[in-house]
Amino acid sequence: MTKSELSEILKTLTSKFKSIEKTLNLETKQSKINSLQKITEKPGFWNDQEKAQEVSQNLAHFESFIKTWSEIKNELKDLPELLEIASKKELPEIETEVQTFEKLFLEEETKLLFSGKYDRGNAILSIHVGNGGQDAEDFCQMLFRMYLRFCEQKKFKIKILEESTSESGLKSATIEISGEAVYGFLQSENGVHRLIRLSPFNAKNLRQTSFSKIEVLPMIKNDTDVHIEEKNLRIDVFRSSGCGGQSVNTTDSAVRITYLPLNLVVSCQNEKSQLQNKAAAMKVLKSRLLQLKIEQQTQKIEELRGEKMDAAFGSQIRTYTLHPYKLVKDHRTNYEENNPEKVFDGEINGFIQAFLRNK
C-alpha cells in the first residue's frame, strides 16, 4: 500500500474515534474502578465468593477497557507521525502496524455495540444436522471446525459437552464457550446455515444443497434467572458413545434431560461421571429456557412456545456457496465474503460486525 492509502485508513479511524470518544466515558469508568477497588480492600471481601468474583470481574473489565482505548488514542497520534517520516524501505513494516491496529480498532468498536444483559457473558453453542444426508453431516463438521478456529483466534476457552459423530462427519455437538463477551460475538450465528457445492459423496459429483442449524445460548449465571421445577423434568441415563476420559465408555454415564412442558431435550456425555453430565445438561437446559425468555419477555416461561425454525430450504440466515462460484452471504445484512476457505477457517468477524450494526 502507498503512503496516501495508509494515511486515508488512519484518517478514517481517527474520525471514527472522535465520533465515539464521548460515549466511551473513560472518566466515569475510572470512578467506577476507584469504587470497586475500595470494595475489594474491605475486610471479609472474599467471604462471599460469588459476589467477590463478580466485583473482581467488573474491575478487570473496566481496567482493560480504559487501558485498551487509551492505547488506541495514543496510536492514532503516533502512527500518522511514523508514517510521515517512514522511508520507502520502512513502509512495509508500517503497513503491517496499520493493518494490525485497524483490526484491533474495529474489534473494540464492535464491543461497544454489546448492549444486551448477557452480551458480555459466556455462551453455549450447539450444532444440529439438517436436510442433506451425508453432505449435511460433513457441513456440520465444517462449521464445528469454523467455530473452534474462531474461538482459538479470540482466545476463548471451549469445553465439549456432547458430540455425536458419523462416518461422514457430525450429527450434533454442544460446546460451552468461555471468555470476554462470547455471547455478544456469537449471537449472530444463531439460525440455519446452508451449503451449496459439488457433493464429494455423490458418485456423479452433482451439485448438492445441505443445511445445518446453529443454536447460540447465553450461559446462565445463577438460578434466579430461570427456575425449573423437578416435576417438569424427565431424566434418562444411557451409555456414552463419545470420548470423555477413562471409563466413560464402559458405564451408563451419559444423561438426557427432557423439559416436559416444552418437550425440550438436552444431553451430555463427555464428562466422566453421571453427576457431572447431569450438571452440564442442566446448564444447557437453563440456557435454552433463558433464550426463550429473552426472545419473548412478555410471556411466562410456562407459556412459551417460540417459533421453531426447520433446518431446511427457505429458513437460512447464511449461505456458503462453493459452486458454481465462491461466495458466503448473510441474508439478514447482505454482507458477503468471496473467500469461503477463509471463512471456514474462522474468519467470521465481518459477519458479526455487520449483524451487530444492523441490529
Topology:
Layout lengths: L2 H22 L1 H15 L8 H37 L5 H21 L11 E7 L3 H22 L2 E9 L4 E9 L3 H5 L4 E8 L8 E12 L14 E6 L15 E6 L4 E5 L5 H22 L20 E6 L5 E4 L5 E2 L2 H5 L4 H10 L1
Parallel strand pairs: 4-9
Antiparallel strand pairs: 1-3, 1-5, 2-3, 4-5, 6-7, 7-8, 9-10, 10-11
Kindly summarize this structure in a few lines.
It contains 9 helices and 11 strands. The chain has helices at 3-24, 26-40, 49-85, 91-111, 133-154, 182-186, 274-295, 340-344, 349-358, and strands spanning 123-129, 157-165, 170-178, 191-198, 207-218, 233-238, 254-259, 264-268, 316-321, 327-330, 336-337. Helix 2 (26-40) packs antiparallel against helix 3 and helix 3 (49-85) packs antiparallel against helix 4 (91-111).
CATH fold-type name of the largest domain: Alpha-Beta Plaits
How much of the sequence lies in strands comes to 15-25%
Please provide the count of β strands.
Answer: 11
Main beta sheet: strand number and arrangement? Answer: 8 strands, mixed
Proportion of helical residues: 40-55%
**Gap from first CA to last CA:** 33 Å
Uncertain segments are 243-249, 298-307
Question: What spatial form do the alpha-carbon principal axes imply?
Answer: flat
Task: Give the topology string: H per helix, E per strand.
Answer: HHHHEHEEHEEEEEHEEEHH
What is the level 1 CATH name of the largest domain? Alpha Beta
Q: Return Rg in Å.
A: 23 Å
With helices defined by DSSP (H or I, 4 residues minimum), what is the helix count?
9
Structural class: alpha+beta
CATH architectural group of the largest domain: 2-Layer Sandwich
